[in-house]
Amino acid sequence: MWRKLLTVLSAFMVFTGTNQAHAEDGYDLWLRYRPLDSVAKARAEPALRYLVGPTERPIIAAAADELKRGLGGMLGATPGQHQTLDEAGGILIATRDSVHLEMAELPFDRLGDEGYLIRTLEIGGKRTIVIAANKDIGALYGVFRLLKLLQTGQPIDTIDIADAPRLKLRVLNHWDNLNRHVERGYAGQSIWDWQKLPGYKDPRYTDYARANAAIGINGTVLTNVNANADILTAPYLEKVKALAEVFRPYGIRVYLTARFSAPIEIGGLKTADPLDPAVRAWWRAKIDAIYRVIPDFGGLLVKANSEGQPGPADYKRSHADGANMLADALAPHGGVVMWRAFVYAAANPEDRHKQAFAEFQPLDGKFRDNVLVQVKNGAIDFQPREPFHPLFGAMPKTPLMMEFQITKEYLGFATHLAYLGTMWEEVLEADTARPRRGATVARTIETPVDTGAATGMAGVANIGSDRNWSGSQFDQANWYAYGRFAWDPDAHAEAIARDWAAMTWGSDPAVVTPIVAMMMASREAVVDYMTPLGLGHLMATGHHYGPGPWVSDLARPEWNPTYYHKADATGIGFDRTKTGTNALAQYAPEVARRWGSPNTVPDELLLWFHHVSWDYRMRSRRTLWDEMVVRYDAGVAAVAAMQARWDGLKDKVDPQRWEEVHSFLAIQQDEALWWRDASIAYFQSISKRPLPAGHAAPAHDLGWYEAIKTPYAPGGAQ
Ligand code: GCW
Known about the structure:
The chain contains 21 helices and 17 strands. It is of the alpha/beta class.
């Protein structure tokens, strides 16, 4: 068989030339491909002398290109192209239908449409690395995996890996407006330069696609959920088409947001009622038109009847009525609707925590097969810590898609180092206990509701026009980790951090170990200095930059921090037990029981579910008030510890990126202190308790903190 394999091959490359080192600004993300050290290089080189693959296919061509680029960078030579593979070994990229693999008996059935395997085989006494998949996209993912092995310093002498994604839809949500403002974006403008599209396809779009394909992302929603109907007009669809063409060789489909009132705004109709035949016909025609322009269009994402967005409730119709109308129009083309469950209503006095569940859970089973309900990880809004959303596990007949926020709207924007992998892992491994114990959130989103039904995860992107893409070097890790969790919701944050650190900063353990330590402690530090012990939503108004726990005068009650912490002379916290709003009843009885008593709820969620006395005895034996102060200080101290670790890396990483991180950590230190001082000053004005011994008084009085205004903080809603 291998004779055949070795003869009918379309292209391969040998190495010539050298790789140029260049200054580091973070642009290369996890695709840096810097030269390997001499030992790793010597180990890798013999096996990698040749590269083979059917490069007439666009995705395979992209895979071959990437391999060439990666090996060229890491081994210090550029592969050249040849027509046949000789007996010297090499890399074969192939799909199941390839004649080269006819006799190989590889376990393709386990790989699905997007999985791959990588195996080292002896051919003529030489090593050949076979990257094989059912479809081309699997081969591309396999190439990225092989490159990762090299980047992270793994041996490649004998490889035997088979991997496949656990979720079907792994998409980014860009909250990008057509004027290039990015809502909750802290990394510059939108990378979509609509003005120059379709005429100019910025090379950056290709790099975006490469970076995403490297972590398995297979879809991107280009536009903000606070939607503008213009994106659905013919001129914009031509622009979207241009982007779709760039992304296609990387297995990435484009999706758009649909403004529910588009039939009125761009269609000239009088209504957008989803049961009105003219409205239905309008959407059908619009969606047919989209597919004529973009045949592999992914589908639509909708935010309806939330925060002022139009929706089916405007016509007294349900979310299912609205979603199903779009789903019916998309179904003939294989498209999906991602319908967001992030809804809460101005007029509804009910605990905001309960509103999405109350509205959506009764609709279980009422959505078409090609609808996914997209649920934020928690019931409020991407706080530094929230319990998992009670909808997970509670809608067994409806595909529920996880929505994470990669951009750090509530976690200090770009300058606070906060690795979100630990937060996502915490949510994904939480036990919903539905229908029985052990049904983690990960399990509920991974398990299709029927054979072949859609599954998915969405991440609100932190990508912008900044040279480093994400606003800071470390925020790249959140984009990276998101992709890894979307591929495998049972993945581990620490292993992901390790890979990212090695690929981004260098695989030397003296670099990786302290960086991973910084990352793993970082999110808890933010929780501690902003919202310890289950507090949440205490950020300043509108932009959410800085502390605002005192704010109580906003039009809607649930926009006010005081609504969330409910501090008064007796104590602090939101009673969501039976004596309060009973939001706990939306969880499985086992979960509700555990969280329903201050004695059994973890400290981390105490004030989320309970209003407790300032003098309540914590597990630490400290009073609640003392414990709060201790936590604020622990958060600030954790930032100082990150600074010390980073200082120790000064000579071990490149100067430009080191300086940037160093400066950002100093900003974070100042702001952590600001949060700590402002919060203590405010809560002490209510608790009237002294600070525990050894903990300093805030630098200023409460009025000083309340007077701080930052109207130009970036990323606001527009
Ligand atoms: O987190 C909040 C943000 C809004 C956002 C909204 C949502 C896009 O503050 O900016 O709007 O959630 O998720 O729809």
